[in-house]
Amino acid sequence: MYRTVAAFLFPITLVALIGTGIWGYRESQEKNSVLIKAENHYQRAFHDLNNHVDKLQDEMGKALALNSRRQLSDCMTNVWRLAYAAQEDLSQLPLTLMPFDKAETFLGKIGSFAHQVGVRDLNKEPLSDKEWNTLSTLYNHAHDIRNDLAGVQNKVLNNQLRWMDVELAMASEDKKMDNAIIDGFQLVNKKVEQYPEVDWGPTISNMEVRKREKYQRLSGKNISAEEAKRKVAYALGRPSAKGMNATVNGKGGDFQTISVTFKKKDGEVYTDLTKTGGHMIFMMYDRPVKKAKLSLDQAEQMARRFLNRLGYKNMVATSYAETGNIVALNFVHQENGIYIYPELVAIRVALDNGEIVGLQADEYVFNKISPITVKPKLTQMEAQKRVSAKLKVQKINKAYIYSPITGDPVLCYEFLGMIGKEQYRIFINAMTGEEEKVERVKKADADHI
């Protein structure tokens, strides 16, 4: 009898085992495919960063040697664009948990300095001796940064280092992290922090003052660590704060945050809230994402539900990008039909089940500039005449942005459109008609978003 049962069950068990093996193999293949795509994305962004910093330093060197004011203007405009391109490259890398803020801010200041020189009439207002000295100092600092980043790049190439290992190392609680990429970036950040104070000029100095003022505009009462845990539990739809750990950060700094972390079955969740007001400004759920099952529309709906739970109202999606079965959506606050770009929230949604796996909301929390009372002097038609005829306009909005030149908030008309196969946003000042900002959009659906 036992032989009969065994003979009957054996083929069934064998088929089940083979089926399980095939399923496991497919799951493994899909996971590996996602990891490879993410790694390729990080590697491309890192090598683009090195390329842009390399060209940035070359352009600054040329600017020091030029005597032609027209060529100097072109050169400084190139420096500005390269500095912001380098910042964009940095935003694509998994550096959120790594202290690299000093170097990133320094690149932003180089861009602002170059822009304020490049856009003015150098025949009427030539480069001053003080500005030339500032440019010379920045050139030397950029040379150091380029060499240090090149050193990291060499290690990455020669030792076949992976950015996915960086992400895992930064997300772990192991304080003794041994990673050449992390060490290299921390070295760059530490060097920048030790640079003597640069005379950026009054415009950029005023921007720094306004940045500190933002932190002072935080609304609400101070919350405790336990309150922070409860807020995280509510936002993420958990029944309780059980198993959560909370740590207060930034004592003595411009503002304090409370970090709340907890483990789930397939990964760990990291969040940061402001101590004042309890506003969530960061969240990352580090888990493997399986094959995509949701559409962009469905992912946007999940993101909107999350924004509502956080209390971030009247948000409109402006762009998106898909990487490794995850879609990243940018939302800005909308008021009376005006897109307030400084009040930005970025959300990452897993396309396998719609779970929120990332949030960056510090710009929304710290850049509160609404309500907007200013009215445009130019009509939409008058503003559109200032836009390049080569732009095939897809959509027009009123928008509020920070001027790259002065750092002041300005009301603009935003023109979203195509030049060839590339999509751009062009912001025209609604008061003066000047072109305030041009940016290339990685991916945006003019009808949907």
UniProtKB/TrEMBL annotation:
Domain Sporulation protein YpeB N-terminal: 30-165
Span of domain PepSY: 378-439
UniProt signal peptide: none
Gene Ontology biological-process entries: spore germination
Domain Sporulation protein YpeB PepSY1 and PepSY2: 183-368
Protein's name in the database: Germination protein YpeB
Recorded name of the encoding gene: ypeB
